[in-house]
Amino acid sequence: CSNPGSSWNNCDFETNLCKVLPEFNLQPGWIRRNGRSGMGPPYSDYNGNESAYFLSLSSEMQSSSAALRTSVFLPTDEEHLCQIRFHYWVSQMSRTLMVGLQKLSEDTVTNIWQVPGELRNQWNVNTITINSTEKFEVIFSGMVETQRQGESVAIDDITFSEGC
């Protein structure tokens, strides 16, 4: 993997500090863990490291979805698009990962990306580009239709470009 450089804000979840995701510890449903936690797959982060941390949906989720909100980003312009790159793991059809955009003037979240339906038990990587004329937040949502053992949604190493 090429290193996007230090101009990107990176959230690798190795520490509890993540400037762009100010409240990720307080989000019900998402937990910070590693592959050795005994909580089912994934058993390592996207680099194959069993002791490295990532976020995954808790199996004790009370509701069917859990949102992870970024801090508020300023409007983008043609020179500074906001690019968000992240690694994700989704096992089975009863699990979904969505990325949404919420402009501050709107109450609704616009879905801008959803995990594709082809499922492999492996880490994938994706980059989304956001163009917004007003301030906005980005929301990662994990959804669970039915609770089954051994199924999970996980996210790791979210990087935000300087246009965010």
From TrEMBL:
GO terms for cellular component: membrane. Residues 9-164 form the MAM domain. InterPro entries: ConA-like_dom_sf (IPR013320), MAM_dom (IPR000998), MAM_domain-containing (IPR051560). Pfam families: MAM (PF00629). SUPFAM superfamilies: Concanavalin A-like lectins/glucanases. It comes from the Eukaryota. This is MALR1 protein.
